[in-house]
Amino acid sequence: MEGQRVFELHFAPVQGYTDAIYRNAHAAMFRGVEAYYTPFIRVERGNDFRPRDLRECQPSSKTVPRLVPQVLGGTPEELRLSLGVLRDMGHRQADINMGCPFPKIVRRGKGAGLLPSPEQVEALLNVLEEFEDMRCSVKMRLGWEKADECLALLPALNAAPLSAVFMHARLGTQEYKGEPDVEAFGVFGKECAHPLFYNGDLRTVEDIQGMRERFPFIRGVMVGRGLLANPALAEEYESGRALSPEERNSRFRRFHDELFAAYADRLQGDAHLLMKMKTFWEEFMPWTDRKILKRVHKATKLTQYKEAVNAAFAEE
Ligand SMILES: Cc1cc2nc3c(=O)[nH]c(=O)nc-3n(C[C@H](O)[C@H](O)[C@H](O)COP(=O)(O)O)c2cc1C
Hints:
Strands 3-2-1-9-8-7-6-5-4 form a nine-stranded parallel beta sheet. The protein is built from 14 helices and nine strands. The chain folds into two domains: 8-239, TIM Barrel, CATH 3.20.20; 245-315. By secondary structure, it is an alpha/beta fold. The longest helix is centred in the last third of the chain and has 22 residues, at 245-266.
């Protein structure tokens, strides 16, 4: 609509959760997500990639309207290799991860380990000149251990041809816990020359609205765990209407059953399937009665698992 400001909601990459099966099932059943991201792929020893990582990024494995593969930010050479592989697959978009807080990655100056080093970030982003046909974004944090590290990165970020910046408003040292520093996000946002997305702990429609009102300059938000908990969150935001308890129950049940069937098809053996579904329940429907969730997590047989899931949906 003319004059209406664009505001987008993107589904954050969450390793172990948002794989191709999950993304495809989600996009088939829920509206409101503008783009989905793969968990990061990375260059392994011998300049190789894990076949599973590449399979997850295959354009043919996707049925979501817009899939953006993510690469782990590391050395310029690694970025060159990663973007090259994605381009050969037919991708014309990629996101660069500068936020991963895992110690093994950070120690090597990758992921969030890049944040204290403006020179390294600049060298990395210079690689994008070789990929003019690709739209690249950066997903980052405020800093590794200080929230003003991102300010020192602004000249390099602003000079680079980025399509967007996704800012998870935490420090690397916080991992995924503790309060996001929304104030520091605002300071960064005022100086960021690219379309900017807020990320971190948005759980409800009101959280998203609040962020949009507080920071009218943002292009949108990126949501991870809030969508894993309530897969209808983006749809509820977009439509301005919460699902009724009955609708939520039946659609969430269908979503669960679709995932269960797709993972049963893909994974070898009940143990793997149970493990995958238990991971899904780590975030899904956290309002479920704790005793029932405990039964889900303690199930050692599929029959026990199914009984617990029936109880979870009966309770809704
Ligand atoms: C288990 C787990 C795995 C994650 N994997 C990735 C990843 O592969 N790439 C990435 O950029 N962020 C990853 N993240 C971070 C999320 O994308 C997101 O930035 C973070 O969870 C904060 O947003 P949220 O509160 O909306 O979940 C991961 C987070 C968690 C909890």
